[in-house]
Structure formats: C-alpha cells, structure tokens
Amino acid sequence: MKLLKLLFRNSFRHPLRTVLTILGLAIAIMSFSVIRTAINAWYVGAEASSPNRLVTRNAVSLIFDMPLAYKERIANADGVTGISLAQWFGGIYVEPSNFFAQFAVEHDSYFDLYPEFLVPEDQMAAFMAERNAVLVGQKLADRFGWSVGDNVRLTGTIYPGDWDFVIRGIYTGKFETTDENTWFSRWDYLDERMRVETPGRAGRVGTYIIQIDDPSRAAEISQAVDAMFENSIAETLTETEEAFNLSFVAMGSQIVLGLQIVSAMVIGVVLLVLGNTMAMTARERVSEYAVMKSLGFQSYHLVGLIAGESMLIAIMGGALGLLISVPINGVLGVALSMMFPVVKMDALTFIMSAVISGGVGLIAAIFPTLKAVRTPIVEGLRIVD
Known about the structure:
- α2 runs antiparallel to α9, α9 runs parallel beside α12 (347-364) and α11 runs antiparallel to α12.
- The radius of gyration is 30 Å and the shape is elongated.
- The chain has two domains: 2-46 and 253-382, no CATH class; 60-234, no CATH class.
- Strands 1, 3, 4, 5, 6, 7, 8, 9, 10, 12 and 13 form an eleven-stranded mixed beta sheet that branches.
- The protein is of the alpha+beta class.
- The chain contains 14 helices and 13 strands.
- 54% of the residues lie in helices and 18% in strands.
- The longest helix is centred in the C-terminal third of the chain and has 37 residues, at 299-335.
C-alpha cells in the first residue's frame, strides 16, 4: 500500500503535466480502438459466410453475366445439394444517395440456402405469390420507414425504367452478423420484363449460389463446376462464399490499408506522449535518485519506482481511453449501420488496447530507469533542480 501511495504521489507531483499525459494517452487509445473497430467491420460479412455455400460468377468480371442454362448442369454436379441464383438490380430509390444492396433472386430456392434470414410464414407466402413482391431487411425498413404492404418505386440504372414493387415481408437476422440492409425482389419479375423490352438480356444470371454437402470438398467441387464451362462463351469462377465476399473487401483495400497504417501510427503517438513525460521526470529527479542510492536503496528499488510510475500513468490513460471508446464506437455503429451489419469493439481490440497501454508504459520507463541507475551518486548530487 505504501508503495502504491508513493507511486501515486510521484505520478501527480506535476498534476497538470500528468493529467495532460493521461488525456493524450486516452485520446490515442480511443482512436486506436475506433480505427480497429472500423477495420473489423469490413470483414464481418466474410466472417459470417457459410462454409457450405459456393458462389459461381463470370470468370471475366462480376459485371458480366451467365446463361440460365448453366443452372441445371451445376445442379447435377457431384457434391451439389442445392442451387439458386441472384442478379444485382441497382435501382435508385428517390435519389442516388439512398443506396442499398438490391438483388433479384430466385424466389422458390434462394431462401432455402440462407436459413439465417428469418421471415414470418405468412409474409414469405405473400412474397411467393406475387411477382413484384419484395423482402427487405429490418434495418433497411427502419431506415426508410417502410412497412409490409408499402408500394415502392425504383428507377433502374442497369435495367432502365421505373419499377414498381410492393413490400410483402421484412426479414430479421438469425445471427448478429446477418445483414439486415438488403432488398430482395424476384428474378422472374425482372426476366419477364426483359423478355418483352430487351430480349437479349433475358435468361441471364449474375451469380449462382451453390450449396454443397461437404465444406472440405469446396475446392474440388469449385474446380469441377468451372471445368464444365471451360472454353465456353462465358467461363466461370467458383469460390467459397467467404472468398467471394472478401473480393468486395479487396475493392476497398486502400482504405483498409490506410486505417491500418493510422492505427500503427497511433501506437507511436502513445509512446511519444508517455516517453516525453517520463524523460522530463528523469531529468528533474536525478539528484533525488542519487540521495536514495546514498541512503541504501538498490537499483531494483529505483526500477520499481520509475517503471511503476510509468505503468500507472499508462494504465490510467488506457482505461480512460477504453471507457471513452465505448460511446464513440456506439455512435460509429449507428453511422455505419447502413454499410455493415455489425460495428462494435470486439474482445481482441479491447485486449490489444490494454496490452499496448501496458507495453508503452514499460518501454517509456526504459530511458529514465537507465539514467537513474547509471548516474553516479556524486554526479547526481551535483545537479541542482
């Protein structure tokens, strides 16, 4: 208890300096945790992917489609237990800033492959019965104030013209990581209109979603599917759902890299802030340490006092930073809820922040400790504050 009391008194010998150091550390740790939380949010979709789902797309690019005829051939492949299809729609609701994910899906098979989308039975039945029906996520419905039965018009970009839909169901996620910001319309409604207006675009599919019996055979089945369409007019690329989702993360790789660099720089800032404070402390207390050594204090006593003071300041700054980061991350989660299903600080980020705080405290104590231990008693006593 006496040691802790001494550490506390030494730490706050210069109250303003110590308080400013703690605040600086707190802001740095808060920034680190917020940045790491934002980085983690990019990968939530990939981490939530099912290991028994594959995605097949055009080998050239996702913007190129494939014939509907591929579906039956893929369904007959060894290891395939289910198949459905999806097409990116890309319509505008009222104005371009109202962006959200929109897919035209095969209504009678798609949701069998995605049990994490929970839809009331009566709403699913209504979706199945009406060609221009849609299902929307709960977060998306909350965003625009939609409810079951509302009529919604989208202005097509990929598929020109005005498209009138009626919301027949609102789904919720079975898991916290399930995305509730997506719009699902019926592919047959899209295809039917294309056959009338643009026959050349009818019977075309953007992606096939494949369910397999054994996740360990994912690579084998993917190769078998792609081999079916080698040298065809639309060769395919089949990959796990996780790899498919990570390809979208890669599109924003520069943003993620930038955030990672900034998070590393924050650690440097933390070290500089505390290191500067401890260096000033070492310069001011050279004579004090000399007196202590003349009274019989050993080197390990000085090491304990200096390192303990540095650790105490670092821990207080880290604890305050983590405390502040909780509401900040909450605000961030609300702001980014339209883009990511989950935005919150995970246990690893918390542990990393705590370890960084403690580690910086130890590193910052190295220079003042060496100075105190190595300075001869006579030389130390010559220094007058």
